[in-house]
Amino acid sequence: MPRVEDTRLLTGKGTFVDDVMRPGMLHACFVRSPFARATITNIDTAAALALPGVHAVFTAADINDDVVEAWHAVAGKDIPDTPRPPLAVGEVKFVGDPVALVVADSRYLAEDAVDLVDVDYEPLPAVADFRKAVGGAAAGVPVVHEAYPDNVAGGMGGAPPDEELFATAAHVVSEHIYQQMYVPVPMETRGMVAEWSGSTEELTVWASTQTPHELRAFAARLLGIPAQRVRVIMRDTGGAFGQKVVPMREDMCILLAARKVSAALKWIEDRRENLMSAGQSRHVDGTVRMAFDEDGKILAADIDFVQDVGSYPTPYPVLTTAAIGMFFPGPYRVPKASFNYKTVFSNTPGLHAYRGPWQYETLTREMLLDSAARKIGMDPVELRRINILRGDEMPFFNPNGMPYDNCAPADTFEQAVKILDHEGFRKEQADALAEGRYIGLGFSAYIEPTGAATGHLATEGATVRMESTGKINVYVNGGSAGNSIETTVVQLTADALGADIDDVSTIQGDTAVTPYGAGTQGSRSAPMTAGAVNEAGTILRGQIIAIAAQILGVEPDAVELADSRATVRDSVGGEAKSVSFADIAYRSYYEPAQLGGVSPTLEATARFNSQAMIHWANATHVCTCEVDIETGHVTLTRYIVSEDVGPMINPNVVEGQVAGGTVQGIGGALLEHLAYDDAGNPVASTFVDYLLPTATEVPPIEFGHVEIPGPGVGGYKGAGEGGAIGSPPAVINAVNDALAPLGVTVTQLPASPAAIVALIEAGGQERSDRGIEQAGKDH
């Protein structure tokens, strides 16, 4: 079925935060630091306050002390957290750090007033390159936070590597791989409208968020008021991809300031602010190794890496950094694995979540496997085929204790190989090289935890109600963030009740009427929402059948539901006895006395508590490309994804999710780079410099599906993050395969034209030098 969201969105009838208008609404704009690190010696707000139409200018002294609690559910209240003040206190930590908040009659006035706020700074040395930050003061490097004198936010080590095995293995391959900083770039930037009612001491918030109930709870904690006095409304959200999972510092400022102004307060981030201040993603540097026996079987895998967490990270991605090490063995038969990492502060925006925040494990492992195949003298397809896990090996525990089950990575891999016509491509590649053309093939396989049932993510609620007309409303926490959860919920509810699709609607994103849920994150929406709808739907189905049986004069087990009707099963002779949902609802709402004592209740609320720790999805990505070795330009020629997300509720939705993530990964592999100079100044804060993939750069995506049911209701698995995880290494491997005849390997992302040309030229010089050296020896 087509998405139910599309009509309103494609006709401009969606309701985004910037569409929200309130009586006398005021507008906010932030004063932001122009320095990567500096001491704030004075803030003079007089000129700004004198501007007609300006209502207030808040500094840290005005609002920071109003914070009561500021922990996030994803970490919990007892987990130690890093500093996160609403406005900068004493020292700014990055270019774009919010220093003051201006409130005015319009955004135009607020921006004018921002220019009138006079902030005195004393610039200080900054450390923008996290790779140089470790050691802090002891190493002569600026310290980002005094509480962390070595600039190390945290770290973890697994089992130590088996160095004897690495020393004696038939083949050992190692690569040093750097992934650049890039970001989600949602079409809709961050935004919020907060309205405080002084008479009732209630707060209403309209937000661009992935987690309305968590935002409600966070706002209550922040302000120290009961949660029932906070209402969060999420309508349409124009993309998020992890950036809007947890409230950030600007959100805190708006919530705090809303109690101090005379009307609703709106803040809409502009694109430059989003690129400069909304946080950073990826940005990891590490060394990866694998040991193989003489037949190409993996003996051991090791990853040692450092991740940039910027200045004020949110807790979500910091917690998932460990997953890079835990998941590094991937969908392969790896007997031994080891990992070690550090998370490091720098004078850049804080790390935030982005579609598969542990994605570096797949990038490095899959790049390493292709490198290993070349060095061993084996096709990358054959090397993976030897090592990839089969369905008959499940359940399987990877060496770090991850319990794989209900999946068969070999199945998606072989399907992708078949769709490609591997042998045909290799022949085409050889013919192209003979013509002086460089074409390449890249594979990437991964296994991904979806719907992880940990902490507050392990439960989800739903309310399903048959209205007096017989139409069905289903209430869930979610909201339209591009993940088609509305369509999914409508389908699930119609199936659960035997209702016509057109008779079902959904109400979402309003904490005043929807049950608590953890929102859109962790590829959880399908498995967890399916569980919640099943729990509530099963109860309501039983109630509908009981009422129908009374009306029809039969036992409940004789009634079946379909097409928004209750029908007597196996009726003898004549037309089957039935009653419509509309008639059932009319009788229940308006003539309950005629139900013979059967409860007229046509509503059920229930919570799903997942007993499945993880729903393991997996996929294989395949990319082919051509590289122009004169210009360094990469043209992608084919892109294939074979994925297993269990039974698909809606194949169009699944493919849309995978395609969207794949395009983001292509951007990360070839184009996107949130770059900073050595002084910590952003050099890509507009779309002139921050390059996004367009339809020109992305070939049609071909899909294959393997449907292995997961352990939960319906067997559904998550599909939201996989595309962004699997695509970067597939693209880079294709580029490296094309450049292999030149002895060139990209190990630092992005693979921009300039970077490719530089590598080719450096490789050419090396080949020339080796030739001269060999000629001298021959002579």
UniProtKB/TrEMBL annotation:
Domain Aldehyde oxidase/xanthine dehydrogenase a/b hammerhead: 11-125
Domain of life: Bacteria
Keyword terms: Molybdenum, Oxidoreductase
Stored InterPro entries: Ald_Oxase/Xan_DH_a/b, Ald_Oxase/Xan_DH_a/b_sf, Ald_Oxase/xanthine_DH-like, AldOxase/xan_DH_MoCoBD1, AldOxase/xan_DH_MoCoBD2, AldOxase/xan_DH_Mopterin-bd_sf
Sections of the chain in a coiled coil: none
Keyword Oxidoreductase: yes
Name the UniProt record assigns to this protein: Xanthine dehydrogenase family protein molybdopterin-binding subunit
